[in-house]
Amino acid sequence: MLYHHNYVAEERYDDVDVLVTRKGAIRAGSGELGIIPGSMATGTYIVKGLGNAEAFNSASHGAGRRMSRTKAKKTFTLADFKAQTDGVECRKDSGVIDEIPGAYKDIQSVMAAQTDLVEVVARLRQLICIKG
């Protein structure tokens, strides 16, 4: 079963019933499959949870932003966007420039930081990305 992100779930840890809020996180219980995306052009990982109770059986939902949407719009040009999404079929207009790959953290670094939370099953490469 694949789990989504940004939700609240009733779970039990150390014999205590708790509400776990996963904002920007996925459930990564032992053996559970999940999806951890990078940016529009940097790959997506299919993972299997390791059931780390200290992390409330959670892992990151994805690369996460390294700059705000506003800063990305001010920092990058449409030419930058087209270069960073070269080889990916996607919208390439000013309406999505805030989604430029350079506005996101490096997905490989994010994955390296959570080897105690998930096992990588597969890495997917974007061919098409549908935004907005």
TrEMBL record:
**Which Pfam families does the record cross-reference, listed alphabetically?**
RtcB
User: Which GO annotations describe the biological process of this protein?
Assistant: DNA repair; RNA processing; RNA repair
Q: Cross-referenced SUPFAM superfamilies, in alphabetical order?
A: Hypothetical protein PH1602 (SSF103365)
Positions of GMP binding: H5, N6, P37, G38, S39, M40, H61, G62, A63, G64, K131
Please name the top-level EC class of this enzyme: ligase
Domain of life, per the record? Answer: Bacteria
Keyword vocabulary terms for this entry: GTP-binding, Ligase, Manganese, Metal-binding, Nucleotide-binding, RNA repair
Kindly identify the residues recorded as the active site: H61
The EC designation for this entry is 6.5.1.8
What cofactors are annotated for this protein?
A: Mn(2+)
Q: Where does Mn(2+) bind?
A: H5
Catalysed reaction, written as an equation: a 3'-end 3'-phospho-ribonucleotide-RNA + a 5'-end dephospho-ribonucleoside-RNA + GTP = a ribonucleotidyl-ribonucleotide-RNA + GMP + diphosphate
The molecular function terms in GO held by this entry are: DNA ligase activity; GTP binding; manganese ion binding; RNA ligase (GTP) activity
Note accompanying the cofactor annotation: Binds 2 manganese ions per subunit.
Protein name per UniProt? 3'-phosphate/5'-hydroxy nucleic acid ligase
Please name the source species.
Streptosporangium subroseum
Instruction: Provide the organism lineage as a comma list.
Output: Bacteria, Bacillati, Actinomycetota, Actinomycetes, Streptosporangiales
